[in-house]
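Thread: iron/sulfur cluster complex, take 2
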Amino acid sequence: MEYLGWDQVEMGAILPSFESETCDIALTPRDKRDYSKNNTYNASVADWRVFKPVYNRETCIDCQNCWVFCPDTAIISVDKKMVGIDYEHCKGCGVCAEVCPTNPKSLIMFEETVDNEEALMKWPEKKRKEK
Ligand code: SF4
Ligand code: SF4
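Output below.
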């Protein structure tokens, strides 16, 4: 896909996010939406990451905190159930892991080079409250 340079976009130009009607967009799964070529959904930031969030379904309570706080809408949630991470759009900021309330956390940042299965095997135990 060819992108326009910042000085090639006409002043006041509108860059629509979608090619078609958007009335049901919130109910349309993200991979079924008719994104325009201007939409950043078509651009990947995967190679920005140094650390990545790894998700552990075993401890997740589907509170949606990560979904609400992710600045890149890179948390995939369907019908209020956390599904995983969209690694094409996650830039590795760590906000999701920070706001995850479970003990142990259900999202933990690991180095990008660590395999997810390996990360899950290293998951920490539940921390006991100090008296
Ligand atoms: S690391 Fe940042 S960008 Fe990636 S899913 Fe978490 S909050 Fe979103
Ligand atoms: S914040 Fe943690 S517990 Fe809540 S949905 Fe996200 S991963 Fe699950």
